[in-house]
Design a protein that fits this description.
- There is one protein chain.
- By secondary structure, this protein is of the alpha/beta class.
- Helices cover 49% and strands 17% of the residues.
- The chain is built from 11 helices and 7 strands.
- It has a 4-stranded parallel β-sheet, sandwiched between helices. A 3-stranded antiparallel β-sheet has the order 1-4-5, with no helix packed on it.
- The protein starts with a helix and ends with a helix.
């Protein structure tokens, strides 16, 4: 029987989105784009998830190009992958704003080992989305465009069901970002995935607009997740 980490690795290796997308949107698959991403992702899940514990589900929006879009690990840039998790990436070097908050919170939770033993982080759309803007590609969120959301909605419900099947506690789900929660609520009404929904401010919002009150938000996260 596969343990939790092996199931996550299998899920990630099979990830692919072949559905419709509106013009000017594109999906990036880090596991196909960089062979080293696959290696460091496997190392991470073998290190922290080689057990069969049930975990709480902390849900982001979709990976950014500089976080999980490079490392394959949600809310983890290459800096924190190396400095906190001890996994070095040679082919890329990234700094991601959200990753700073998440790992400061993880440190106060009790450290990466303690945190990942109890919490699983992922997103309803587990691949990075970019949008063409003035000739270059920029990060996009799955809810930025109504047609985009409608195109990928079924894929997101299917992905969430696959995450749940890893052995997640569905009685309460923890959602990063208020707008994200509005859309996950729509998916939940349709697919009956989760019981209680607890909404937390998104790490990027905290770092960007509420950095002086960062400790309050770290406490809020830990209080909710503990």
């Amino acid at each position: 029987m596969k343990n939790f980490g092996e199931k996550v690795i299998e899920f990630n290796k099979k990830l692919s989105y072949n559905g419709n997308l509106p013009d000017d949107f594109h999906v990036l698959n880090p596991y196909l784009d960089n062979p080293e991403t696959l290696q460091v992702m496997e190392q991470f899940y073998h290190k922290y998830y080689s057990d069969n514990h049930q975990r709480k589900f902390l849900v982001g929006i979709n990976p950014s190009r500089h976080g999980a879009g490079v490392t394959g690990v949600p809310f983890t840039d290459t800096k924190r992958l190396e400095s906190v998790c001890g996994i070095k990436m040679i082919s890329a070097y990234t700094h991601e704003v959200s990753s700073v908050f998440v790992y400061d919170m993880i440190s106060e939770y009790g450290g990466a080992e303690e945190f990942y033993k109890e919490i699983y982080i992922n997103s309803p759309f587990p691949l990075a989305i970019v949008r063409k803007s003035k000739g270059s590609w920029i990060n996009a969120k799955y809810y930025d465009d109504k047609a985009l959301f409608n195109d990928i909605k079924d894929f997101m419900i299917d992905s969430l069901k696959k995450h749940i099947s890893l052995n997640l506690d569905t009685s309460e789900v923890f959602i990063m970002g208020k707008k994200n929660a509005d859309f996950i609520s729509k998916l939940n009404q349709e697919a009956q995935l989760f019981g209680k929904m607890t909404v937390l401010e998104h790490p990027r919002y905290i770092q960007q607009y509420k950095s002086k009150e960062k400790q309050l938000y770290i406490d809020k996260y830990i209080l909710a997740l503990k």
